[in-house]
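The instructor's notes for this session suggest beginning with a concrete chain rather than abstract definitions. Hand out the sequence below and ask the class to guess, before any prediction is shown, which regions might be ordered.
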Amino acid sequence: METERGTAAVLVPTLFPERKPMTPAQIAAGIQAALIVQRRAVTFGKRPFAAALVGPDNDTVLLTHQSVDQVNHAESELARLAYKHYTKEFLWQCTLFSTWEPCGMCTATAYWAHIGRIVFAASNDQLYELTGPGNKENFTMDWHTRDVLKGCPQKDIEVIGPLENEGKAVMEESDIYWSRTRSNSG
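After discussion, reveal the predicted structure:
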């Protein structure tokens, strides 16, 4: 913008503002926030998948969501809701925490919602191991979050996971649900 005295600096938000690094304690707390939602979901007979969106300060939980069914996953539903409420610049500084590694659909939805960081406790491979082959409640795909994002060089989305300790806890707690479905698989 030109002024009589010269050029004035105009502050335009950047689409990719800097993200604050996360501490191990913040990572553990974010997974715990998602795990609380997962526990509640399992109590009500729902699938053991949950997500939490944490703000740019890496501490404030902004939104949580559980899996609704095989099409309406926790992470994709949370990302859609977040996109309705926050700007792209703000979401770029946020972190999506998930009890399980987001599938291809959920990773792509987080990408389009412009969420800058994804943290997950347990991997897609661990989910397949836990649910068993042919489980009609969970047709695990052999895709991984990092693989989906390889084809998206325009955004440097940070991915953290799987997490050893948190992943074990998620697997143990999820087995409450999956142990009932394994006998029905095949």
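Then share the key points. Residues 136 and 185 are 6 Å apart (CA to CA). Confidence is low (pLDDT under 50) at residues 1-5.
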